[in-house]
């Protein structure tokens, strides 16, 4: 688990094809690796990866075909900057929100505009994730825990303060960039709980307006 508070901006040193998937070598910058052991988890742009090599100036991790297909990791190349966060410990301050490091989908930066010293980004999420994104709720973008300031369909607005811009890779975002998205865990669990016994039915498609009406959650 992670908090979504980025600890360092690292960079991709190499991406090496290996048996059908990829081994990624990450230089970790100011990230303290003194307490990291082989097998520990580190989030790279919000993707939970397992350290399989620790050469001293960074780490290497294997990226499966599933991860490559479901995230924006395919967009990375040698020299790409990345957000880094080590897995939380029992004594970690939970400054963001609980983040699993399992990407739910890939979004796209639609627009960027200045707002005083902050920068506003409008991001389009996959349609299937729209129901989990709420005004003033939490969302993780490339591993960064952020607050949603407005929602319009599958698009949502973020206002990013100067500190976050300087401590993450968001300063480099431009329209058209693909980003890893992880929705709030609580939203996913709430949806599952609302299904009740129907959650065990293999044909269940999740919460719909019809389901809510049939089960008394909506008034006619």
Automatic annotation (TrEMBL):
<keyword id="KW-0808">Transferase</keyword>
<protein>
    <recommendedName>
        <fullName>Riboflavin synthase</fullName>
        <ecNumber>2.5.1.9</ecNumber>
    </recommendedName>
</protein>
<keyword id="KW-0677">Repeat</keyword>
<feature type="repeat" description="Lumazine-binding">
    <location>
        <begin position="98"/>
        <end position="194"/>
    </location>
</feature>
<feature type="domain" description="Lumazine-binding">
    <location>
        <begin position="1"/>
        <end position="97"/>
    </location>
</feature>
<comment type="subunit">
    <text>Homotrimer.</text>
</comment>
<feature type="domain" description="Lumazine-binding">
    <location>
        <begin position="98"/>
        <end position="194"/>
    </location>
</feature>
<dbReference type="InterPro" id="IPR026017">
    <property type="entry name" value="Lumazine-bd_dom"/>
</dbReference>
<comment type="function">
    <text>Catalyzes the dismutation of two molecules of 6,7-dimethyl-8-ribityllumazine, resulting in the formation of riboflavin and 5-amino-6-(D-ribitylamino)uracil.</text>
</comment>
<dbReference type="GO" id="GO:0009231">
    <property type="term" value="P:riboflavin biosynthetic process"/>
</dbReference>
<keyword id="KW-0686">Riboflavin biosynthesis</keyword>
<comment type="pathway">
    <text>Cofactor biosynthesis; riboflavin biosynthesis; riboflavin from 2-hydroxy-3-oxobutyl phosphate and 5-amino-6-(D-ribitylamino)uracil: step 2/2.</text>
</comment>
<feature type="repeat" description="Lumazine-binding">
    <location>
        <begin position="1"/>
        <end position="97"/>
    </location>
</feature>
<dbReference type="InterPro" id="IPR001783">
    <property type="entry name" value="Lumazine-bd"/>
</dbReference>
<dbReference type="GO" id="GO:0004746">
    <property type="term" value="F:riboflavin synthase activity"/>
</dbReference>
<dbReference type="Pfam" id="PF00677">
    <property type="entry name" value="Lum_binding"/>
</dbReference>
